[in-house]
Specification:
Number of helices: 0
Number of strands: 26
Family: Belongs to the fimbrial protein family.
Protein name: Fimbrial-type adhesion domain-containing protein
CATH topology of the largest domain: Immunoglobulin-like
Helix content: under 10%
GO cellular component, one term: pilus
Radius of gyration: 26 Å
Main location: other
Subcellular location: Fimbrium
Structural class: mainly beta
Order of helices and strands: EEEEEEEEEEEEEEEEEEEEEEEEEE
CATH architecture of the largest domain: Sandwich
Strand content: over 45%
Amino acid sequence: MKLKQRMRLKKRQAILMTCFSLLPAIANATIIGEITTNNAHVYAYTLGTSNIPANTPGSSVAMPVSDTGVYSATLNCHGANFSGEPTYYMSTAPGLTASTVNPGYLKLNDYIDVKIEVWIAGQVNQYFTVPFGSTSNNYAGFVCSSRNPVQQGSFSTGSKVRVTFKITKPIINGMSIQNMNVAQLFGRAGHHSAGFGNSPMAIIQIKSGIITVPDKCTVNNGQPIAVNFGDIPNDDKSLDGSQHAQNIPIHVNCTGGSFTSGNVSIKLAIQPAAAGIASFDPNYLGTTGTVDRKDLAIKLTDSSGKIVKPNTFVPFTGFQNNQGDWNLIAYPVAKPGANIPEGDFDSSATVIADFQ
């Protein structure tokens, strides 16, 4: 029987990543004057790379304005008769809450707040900070009649956004954003409905963006750390979390920013990758393989034998002159009473650094 495991602890290229998947289902019913698309139009913005030279609370960076042009949508008249009425817009930011320290900003995570400003066209032609309530474009451009239950129109509201990031807590190695939906835009024509429908006419998405800071930490000179347990038994008595130990020496070197002023205290954590945490014990890393691996996990301890829990920061006591070694020990462990199927298994994780 062969159970082979490779554990990779990689350099954390971008310490924080926030992803959201908030595309709502389109409702079947619409209200009078509601503006809809077959599927909500997605304004996807690529923000590129921006550097925040001062990695301190209050430092900010404004990302470039993007203009993605116009799109088509449907005005639902429902037999109503009106003309010369403006379009009203409302915007929400699902999944984000108001910042407690920066007015007008939303909390992106524990380190960064974000301000999102959406362009309203018509005769307004200015930016509004998300979230905002019913706001007119002051352009009387729509006509509804009983003979025309629906009308097609072109819209540019939402085609431009301004995104500003502000640091609330110093970070290491910066942050990467991918496919994050930051705002939903709703629209209606006229005063014939008190509110807005359930279906957004547009979704504003940050397709990609990178924020860099001068404070950087490198793990194992940027090279993956591979651990192989070799051939091990598959019974729970042998896989009790105290046998088949493998040492994992993790060298960390930090430079730039705060690290240039002298010794800085940091803390480290292990973030599980695709396998996540073990289903039978949240103190262990999960495993994957060609057969069911729900009853097999990896236990990590420090050199003193204390369990290193996934996603839990611990002080890096061996960190001197902005570098040091974090010596971990890995053990395969089975769920008590389980008989583990033969075959290879794999687990991977990322080392995360944070300021104390």
